[in-house]
Structure formats: structure tokens, C-alpha cells
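Per reviewer request, we include the raw input and output of the structure prediction for the construct analysed in the revised manuscript.
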Amino acid sequence: MQQEKLESKVRKLFERQGFQLKSTKNGFRAEKNNSEMVLKVFSSEEYSHDEIPAKVEENNKVFIDPDLSELEELVENDISVLKEEKESQEFETPSYEVIGNIAVINDLAGVDRKKAVEGILHHQNVKTILLKKGGLEGEFRVGNYEKLYGEETETIHTEFGCNYQVDPTKAYFSERFSTERKRVVDQIEDGEKVLVMFAGTGPFSILAAKETDPEKVVAIEKNPEGMNYLEENILINNVEETVEGIEGDVRDVLPELNEKFDRTIMPLPESADGFLELASENTEYNGVIHYYRFLEDDSWEELENEISEKIDNYEIMDKVECGERGPSVKRVCIDIRIR
């Protein structure tokens, strides 16, 4: 496929999902909701398998045509194979994310199920397509999904050089927040003690251990299925010397640890307010809390009042929008320094 045509396909794919794209050498820089990712595009008409690895960094997303599919064995990057599109055929594709080789549709948005499957399979090399049905459910906040194509729901997802074994039907995981995870991890300083509450399958914890040099990372997860994947991912990524996974409710685990941390990450936007006081009690003076919440109708004052009711002395360092739950509801992170 021609390089220009392949780049055009990538541009359309990401613009359809609401990204703003800036052209760069061999691809694009994609921005959305204050997050950023680098997309690298390589056509077999211009590049060979051997010369591409030197042109990509570990956090790049790579797009190739089918004649370069062997590249998947040469680099660890997240690679998508885009096929030639027949001029006479148009494909309707709803908004979706790709986790490993599983596509997850958040909303069909009026697209027929069969056409949605055809469109995604045309653009992505995936083994399963899931349709998200409603929000997260149950004690462990796991998504409810309908299988539109394929059967397997377990996959290996690669992100910023880390490999995660995940099953979104058993434990929450989203690729959409990869750049937000990187934003937080990039702030970790050498020697920090990091606490990840509601750690899930380990994306914050493992990235922190791989990308930075913390003294240790404690990852607490209540969901037994999530804990199984967390422990597996710690081993897969060889970070068992740094990351300690603990199964249980943070309300029970933290008092037993009797320890304070330099940085606390709270990726549970639906109910993190119920744990903020506990987080502040276990964060060192001058330490940082990354507090995730849902923001309705841009009512920042409501969230700031929420914080002031739980913490006496603090400073808001940053307020970041990092996703959407609905038309008027955003996923946000407030970075708080304890004073």
C-alpha cells in the first residue's frame, strides 16, 4: 500500500475517535483530552522489515500494511495491520478501543452490529469484538459485554514497553487511559514509595516500576480475578523486586501496613471520594495524591469542596481532563500535594 494512502487511513481512524493530529516524520502526534500519543506509519512500498525497528520508540503505536506483518515478531510495540480498502466499499465504524487483539465498542451510535464488525475487521487484526453494555457493575466494577465476534476474551496488551495479560470481562482495563497513566508515572522521582489503590491488573504499578526508579510500589486490588492478573503481570514484566501486590480492601490493608507513601494513585473515579481521607492519612508530608473523579457540567468547585472536606492542609497542583463518561461528564484527575 502507498505510504500516503496508509497515513490517510490512520488519520481518518483517529479523527473519527475525536483526536487532533499533527503530522510528523513517519506518522502523527495524536492529542485528545490533554493526553498525547505518537503514531508511526510504515508502508511496505517504502520500508522493509529490517529498517523499521530503528525508527520506532517503545511507546509508539505502529501501523503497517499486511506485507509488513512479520514486524510483529521484531518489535514489542502495539502494532495494527491495516488492509487495503476497496474503492467501491465503504465501512461504518463506531468508536472503539483495541486491547491487545480484542476490540471493545463503547457505543454503536446507530451503526448496525454486522456493519460494525465488518468495519472493525477491515481496519484491525483482532480475534474478538466486544460491545460494552452499560457501565461498570458489581462489587468489583467490571464491565458487562456482548460478544459480537469471536469467543476469546483474554489477551496480551502492550503499552509503553509493558505487557499486560488482561480480560476486560473479568477485571477492568482500558487502553484509552494509557497516556494519562504515562503522565502520572513521568512525575515519579527516584526513591519514591508509591501506593496504587484499586490497582486492577497493574498498568499504573508496572509502568511505574519499569519507567522510573522507585524504592517500591505497593499495589492493592480487591477483585480476586484482577489480583490474579496483577500477579501474573508482575512476573511477565520482571518487576517482582519492586512491585508488591496485595489482595484486599484498601480500608483493611492500609492500617495493617502502617506505612506512609510519597505518592498515592487513586484510579477509581466513581467512588474515590470515600477513600480520600484514608489516602491522605497514608501519604507523606509533601507527598502527592492523584485523585480521579467524574466531573459533571464542569463543576470543578464541587470537587474542590469535596477535597477540602477530607483534607486540612493541601495544595492543588494540577487539574487534568483525561476522558469522557458521557456528553456532560468527564473523567478528571486532580493532583494534590499534602502540606
